[in-house]
Structure formats: structure tokens, C-alpha cells
Amino acid sequence: MYLAIADDGITLHQPDRLKELYASYKQRLTPARLHEVLAEHGGGELLPDGNHVMVPVETLRRLAAGQVDEGWDVEFSRMLSYAEGQGWMSSDGTAVRAHLEREM
């Protein structure tokens, strides 16, 4: 799954692909604008390295609603457990780290 970031908001694509999670943007967005869009739409926060976003778990669930099957939440929880084992979760478990890519 990936979080698409645009100047006017965020959307979740391919939520049923639970083997990967990343954030993506196509437009020319500065780090400051990325930060603003994420904050305005509950998309999390751009990390200081500029290469990762901490995405709230609840945002992913909210954006996936209506796009996924009934068993999705169980598989999503497994994905989060894996992420936790890799050190990709926030210390309180409410956000998961996603690599940030600029699509051409």
C-alpha cells in the first residue's frame, strides 16, 4: 500500500498490498509543503531525514475503509507486528514509518 501525497491532500492506494508501505508524491512539493499537507490531513509527519514519514495507524485504517475486505484488519495487524519487530513503529505504537519517494 502507499500513501499518495498531493498539494490538496492524501489518499491511500492499494491498501490490500500489505507486504509494503511507502509514501509517494508526484508534484513538486518542498519539505515544508509536505509537512503542511501531512499535518492538515492527518497524514503524519515528515521525519528530519526527509526520506521517511511517520504515518498514524488510524489514518491508514480510516483511508482503507470501504476499499478492503473484512479480513483486512487482521492482516494489517500482522503487518504492524512485523514493522514493530523491524523498529519501524513509533515508541507508543500509534504510527508506522514509511519510506518517502518522489514519483516522476
Largest sheet composition: 6 strands, mixed
What's the mean pLDDT score? Answer: 95
Strand order of the largest sheet: 2-1-3-6-5-4
Structural class based on helices, strands and sheet pairing: alpha/beta
Report helical residue fraction.
Answer: 25-40%
End-to-end CA span: 18 Å
Order of helices and strands: EEEHEEHHE
Taken as a percent bin, the fraction of beta residues is 25-35%
Number of helices: 3
User: What is the chains' assembly state?
Assistant: single chain
Radius of gyration: 13 Å
Secondary structure: elements and pairs:
Elements: E1 2-6, E2 9-13, E3 22-25, H1 31-40, E4 45-46, E5 52-56, H2 57-64, H3 72-85, E6 95-102
Parallel strand pairs: 1-3, 3-6
Antiparallel strand pairs: 1-2, 4-5, 5-6
Describe the structure.
With 104 residues, the protein is of the alpha/beta class. The chain contains three helices and six strands, in the order E-E-E-H-E-E-H-H-E. Strands 2-1-3-6-5-4 form a six-stranded mixed sheet, sandwiched between helices. The protein is globular.
Summarize the structure.
Helices cover 31% and strands 28% of the residues. The protein is globular, with a radius of gyration of 13 Å.
Features:
31% helix, globular, alpha/beta, 3 helices, 104 residues, 6-stranded mixed β-sheet, single chain, 6 strands
